[in-house]
Write a structure and sequence with these properties.
By secondary structure, this protein is mostly beta strands. The protein has three helices and 13 strands, in the order αββββββαβββββββα.
Length: 257
């Protein structure tokens, strides 16, 4: 899956050591290196947990399952479903064509809602992730952003990313990329008033036998309302068989995936 993932598709970022000198690298060089170091994943199924922490420190642990597939045209389709607790069981998000189409299945109402326009800025099922964030599971397309390498420290390259979409809720994002392993370990999201709003951190990664690394746990914090959502993957299967019509509105309305 040759996609540069900004959010949960950080799930499949694979990384390695680059021989080029730091001073010679540009943002495009860094993105190229990250893409080169990604494992070849066409389909995947992941199970894990999502811990939601509210402003008063109360916690709710949710069980989740996710599917993804790179389509023939290079875009990525994803399904994200809550398995528990009962209050959110079977709420399911379907993202098609790198988030160009987003649908939400609400089992309590037995209907599917199309997420479009300003609705993309709403938070997803009480988490700190918006539908705009969730649509980035599919992949980061460079032509949708302006970006440049603005700084570096001993451990990270620091890249500023400005969305070209006039409806984006973010003025810019600042991405930290690990110099040794070439994976994203933090993204700072700034609102339209240039105030730091959300912070995405990679808390745990797993190094594979082939030298690639994939994320195991990430955390999204909202600094305005003092809430947090931690996503941890316990089981990951890659290059699995999925039906041709699996990523569809009909599929997400099923009681079992």
């Amino acid at each position: 899956m040759k996609k540069l993932l900004l959010f949960v598709a950080l799930i499949f970022l694979a990384v390695g050591v680059c021989a080029a000198s730091a001073s010679a690298l540009t943002a495009d060089d860094i993105f190229d290196e990250m893409e080169e170091r990604q494992s070849e994943v066409t389909t995947s199924r992941s199970r894990g947990s999502l811990l939601v922490v509210d402003a008063r420190g109360r916690e709710e642990l949710r069980e989740v399952i996710m599917y993804s597939r790179e389509e023939d045209d290079g875009t990525v389709s994803t399904i994200f479903r809550f398995l528990s607790p009962a209050s959110v069981r079977n709420i399911t998000l379907l993202s098609l064509e790198d988030g160009d189409q987003i649908n939400l299945y609400m089992p309590a109402y037995r209907r599917v809602r199309r997420i479009a326009g300003s609705g993309r800025q709403e938070t997803f099922a009480g988490t700190n992730f918006t539908y705009e964030d969730m649509s980035d599971i599919g992949g980061f397309e460079r032509e949708d952003y302006e970006y440049e390498l603005i700084d570096e420290d001993e451990e990270n390259y620091i890249i500023e990313i400005v969305p070209l979409d006039p409806d984006s809720q973010y003025s810019r994002q600042v991405m930290k990329v690990d110099k040794n392993l070439f994976f994203v370990n933090q993204i700072d999201f700034y609102d339209l008033e240039e105030t730091l709003w959300r912070v995405l951190e990679v808390l745990e990664v797993e190094e594979m036998d082939d030298g690639t690394v994939r994320f195991r746990e990430i955390s999204m914090s909202d600094l305005k309302d003092n809430t947090r959502s931690d996503l941890k993957l316990e089981e990951i299967e890659e290059n699995i068989d999925l039906p041709a019509n699996f990523f569809s509105v009909r599929t997400i309305q099923r009681p079992e995936l």
